[in-house]
Amino acid sequence: MELSHRKKIMDYEGMEFPSKTYKDIVLEPAYDQAKVNFVRPMLQIHFAHLIMLVEEGIVNQDDATKIVEAIKKINIEEFKKSEYNSSYEDLFFEIEHILMEEAGDIAGNLHIARSRNDMGIAIYRMNLRERTLNLINGALHLHKSLIDLTEEHIDTVMIGYTHTQQAQPTTLGHYFNAMTDLLSRDMKRLISSFETVNRSSLGAAALTTSGFSINRQRVQQILAFDEMIDNAWDAVAGADYIGETATAVQLAGINLGRSTQDFLLWGTQEFGAFKLFAPYVQISSIMPQKQNPVSIEHMRGLLSSVVGDSQTVLTMMHNTPFGDIVDTEDDMQPYMWNAMEKLQKIYYLMSSVLMTMDVNRSKLLERAQGSFANVTELADTLVRTNHLSFRKAHEIVSSAVKGLTDKGQESLDAFTLKHLNEHAEKVIGSKLNLTEEEFKNTLDPKHFVDIRELEGGPSPKRMKKTIEKRYEEHNVFAKWLDEKRKSLDSVDKNIEDILQSWVTND
In its keyword annotation, does this UniProt entry include Hydrolase (predicted)? Predict the structure, then answer.
């Protein structure tokens, strides 16, 4: 019985590489990813490596010219439509076979002083650096929207919350500015990860470099890598470049997810802070009155997916040997791409949702005007006018508020100077040196906001200065992105210029 089962498995799987299940589960899916994402960087690496081999006198220019002609015949778009051919283990060997058919055996010299190890890592890095720039571009789009929203709502007074409870008056602009600064840090982490990613592994070969006298720095330069990974073992084994990216993306997803929670709450009818623009809501199939904020709900769910995919990358790295190993390569890359693509799209969607929503400014102000959230300023005023310690002033105000809330009076309407003095007499044995006008002023949320002019405060005067700085910061980010984009976009032209110079020199 056991032998019969084994024979059935062997008959099903076949006797030659690759077995059917290995092809179906591993090789074919990996090929389908590679044919879409890896052909262009692979060809760029072929050109750069070949140029270097010629410049170092390892391959003669005539042979190299024939190899160049063969490389140029490979159609990247056609390759994207191709199907996995089990005659070749992977995309690398398929392209190598095509080159040798076109140029002859001399095409085999293209692999002098090179391995799939250092080449594969370089391809992953080249692919990831492009995706990182695309993600930063999406983040910049939202960043600009958040600064604009900060400016638009610089005087939209609302209650700020801590521990999910009413805390102090602030402005919606102040909240959007906080989101801006959080996103700025996310972009800085992504920029840092780009700098780690954009380092060349080429020339490391399998893990010990090569006995051929090649020029690793020259290949790095041609392919627009900012640096070269010095240690060859580290070059093929150090998967932390993608781990750092995963960490930055995961944290960015978590950060934005916290605000989606706020927006879902603030959009409820009970809270009534805003209404979403019609294109971003869906109606109920049974309840005529329903306006469901599904765009924000989807963002919340997709952001959780971003966090999960990023964690998958980190988990796949965990406890793997420190060497070239498939755990940190083909199987892992798509999870990183998925996370980055989703987060990038969410940045654009979030920007559109926020920029088009209708904020109920009057309702937010009215709620702030009737809330005990203003009384921090009352305690501060008692310190200034009555020379009390803050703790004693806090005790008086706290006692007065509790006296009302214990009777079920949750609004400022019943809070009078007389009521405050009754509790002051209980705490300090005397009435307060406070006029009716001063008392009312301390409970005005606009006054509360206006006098908070310190760095980081919500006052319009302070926020105007803050907004200027955020626009400046945005321009710095945009300039960095533009410079890096131009650098990567120049690779093909630089290669073509060098190859053209061969013809000119001849």
Answer: no
pLDDT tens column, 377-426: 999 999 999 999 999 999 999 999 999 998 888 878 889 999 999 999 99
Whether 91 contacts 38, CB under 8 Å: yes
Q: Are 294 and 303 spatial neighbours (Cβ–Cβ below 8 Å)?
A: no
Q: Where are the alpha helices (DSSP H) in 429-459?
A: 436-442, 445-450
Long-range contact set of residues 159-168: C-beta below 8 Å, sequence gap at least 24 = 159/364, 159/367, 159/368, 159/371, 159/373, 159/445, 160/373, 166/371, 166/372, 166/373, 167/373, 168/373, 168/374, 168/376, 168/448
Distance (Å, rounded) from C-alpha 443 to C-alpha 445? 6
pLDDT tens per residue across span 169-209: 999 999 999 999 999 999 999 999 999 999 999 999 999 99
Number of domains in the chain: 3
**What range does the domain containing 89 cover?**
2-37+59-111
pLDDT of residue 3: 64
Question: 7: buried, middle or exposed (CB in 10 Å: 19+, 13-18, 0-12)?
Answer: exposed
Same domain, 282 and 254: yes
Q: Are residues 258 and 325 in the same domain?
A: yes
Which amino acid, one-letter code, is at 489? Answer: D
Backbone angles phi, psi at 169, to 5 degrees: -65, 145
Structure tokens at 413: 């309407």
Q: Are residues 259 and 319 in the same domain?
A: yes
Q: Are residues 291 and 333 in the same domain?
A: yes
Q: What is the CATH number of the domain that holds 402?
A: 1.10.40
